[in-house]
Amino acid sequence: MIKLDILAFAAHPDDTELSCAGTLASQLAAGHKVGVVDLTRGELGSRGTPEIRDQEAQASAEILGLSVRENLGLEDGFFQNDKPNQLIVAKTIRKYRPDVILANAVKDRHPDHARGAKLVEDANFLSGLSKIEIEDSGELLAPWRPRAVYHFIQSQFLQPDFVVDVSEYWDIKMEAVRAFKSQFYDPNSKEPETYISSPEFMKMIESRGKELGHSIGARYGEGFTVSRNIGVKDLLDLK
């Protein structure tokens, strides 16, 4: 099993690409091992099919150079933050033992996003409890709790607690986004129009990146929120 430095969970394939692919690319460039685990296959999406989205997710993983891309196959639109799903996610955390987890926005227009955010946070806590036994291929997985869980920002703007400078990696991010050809703007597509398939949506992603970048004196940025305070020992660590 691969030990990851950073593991991003997402309710749907393409959530991470739209929200934090620049951050993932920057961490990969720094030599960290990074993976993405999608909770669902996005089977309720109006465009494409689960099979097409599986292929697009793998294409994006190759563009970014991810160490892991996995799909848990939870039910799109209907998965719940309940014990069975918490244990599935906790098993994934114990399997990959990340130091940092990234998860969906705590509030957004799609209800799966906030629900996925809470599911990952609760599963993360349970993953660290020694009295919860979880097996993988007949082997008992040791308890594991990452140092931090950070939530990326999605369609609905949330005030970030910190912003990552992704200026050098914006082009890679957008290449990874465009790997999901079935989902986004294509003037030749005969698929139904959706909220994310309009050219205006892609302009919003560009503008959001510029706005967040501007807030820290960079060309492009990606923002994150946290559920608890971030601690530092040295003020010079802050930029």
Describe the structure.
- Helices cover 36% and strands 18% of the residues.
- With 239 residues, it is of the alpha/beta class.
- It has one domain: LmbE-like (Rossmann fold), CATH 3.40.50.10320.
- The strands form 2 sheets. The protein has a 7-stranded mixed β-sheet, with helices on both faces. A two-stranded antiparallel sheet has the order 5-6.
- Helix 1 crosses helix 5 (170-178) and helix 2 (50-64) runs antiparallel to helix 5.
- It is globular and about 55 Å long.
- The protein starts with 5 loop residues before the first strand and ends in a 13-residue tail after the last strand.
In short:
It is built from 6 helices and 9 strands.
Question: Which keywords apply here?
Answer:
Rossmann fold; 7-stranded mixed sheet; 239 residues; alpha/beta; globular; 18% strand; 6 helices; 9 strands
